[in-house]
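Just scan my protein:

——
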Amino acid sequence: MISDSVRAIWCRELQRDDISIDEDFFALGGQSVIMVRIQGAFMEELGVEVPMDQLFLNPTVASISAYIESLGAVTQ
């Protein structure tokens, strides 16, 4: 499931293990440098390029996972 992979990436990059799928990236302490690392991890680990604006528009694991699934080209 994409949301499990996205959550794992967020947990690693935000150095937390208690992130729920509905928590806001910025409320968790996320900032632009971490966002760039997450963007790179999505490309490397999920094989999908997520534009930076989509990361701002979809600041939860649930919403960015839905966006990634909508692309339909994810390999895990």
About this structure: The chain has four helices and no strands. The domain at 2-71 is CATH 1.10.1200.10 (Non-ribosomal Peptide Synthetase Peptidyl Carrier Protein; Chain A). The chain has one domain: 2-71. The mean pLDDT is 94.
